[in-house]
Amino acid sequence: MKKVLSVFLAALMMISVVSLFAACSKDTADKDTTGASDAATAESDLAYVQDKGTLVVGITEYEPMNYMDENGEWTGFDTEFARAVGEKLGVNVEFVEINWDYKYNELDSKSIDCIWNGMTITDEGKEAASISDPYAENAQVVVMKQDQLANYTDVESLKDLTIAVEGGSAGEKAAAAAGLTNTVVSNTQALALTEVSSGSCDACIIDLTMANSMTGEGTSNANLGFELKLEAEEYGIAFRKNSDLTAKVNEIIDELMSDGTLDALAEKYEISLIK
Length: 275
What we know:
Low-confidence stretches: 1-13, 15-42
Number of strands: 11
Radius of gyration: 28 Å
Order of helices and strands: HHEEEHEHEHEEEHEHEHEHH
Shape: globular
Largest sheet: 9 strands, mixed
Helix content: 40-55%
Structural class: alpha/beta
Number of helices: 10
């Protein structure tokens, strides 16, 4: 009788152990599956942006790409472009002014979701972020007083001038590449332009798109102009490294090119598209 009872108790213990092991295995599997799912979601920038319902765009005030209208609202080519993309993504678009020198830090810290502000595509940018397909053409130009243009027709003639540039910009890099070392660093291109208008600097190096919009007849800087171009370049949008938002936005850019949305914006803001 004792032997039978011992066998019965041993079998009962084995069943309990097996049941406990199965339960633990299932719990572990569930946790692993949930964890993997959470990790996949966390790694998706697209899901992150759509879940919070807002695409936060890092910008500086840069006409005609992003600037304030008479009502204090953001407008411009990139502003309207970003809103059109946000609509396709099903999210709102929020614009945040950033220090251009620290744009990639802002991106990595998730203070912003992208940099979209007439941003020149560079090798540095490709290393630091995931860059969209190029969508517009640009160049760096030397802006100065109209009555001085004839005196400065090449880089060598600029060597003794005081030249304003935006810190961390393509203009600053173009100045360095041209060997122009007598530079004054401003927080934005608009401020660099103000340095010339006020007479604090002899010239500034800014984007062609801004120079077209903010100098010459019919602008508040009618006495300023440009002739000399330093570097041709292309504009793109920067997302976090390996972000799946890049591919999705590239798809949407193609759609907006095809349906005429970007053509209309380019005509409105005098932008040269890359198709």
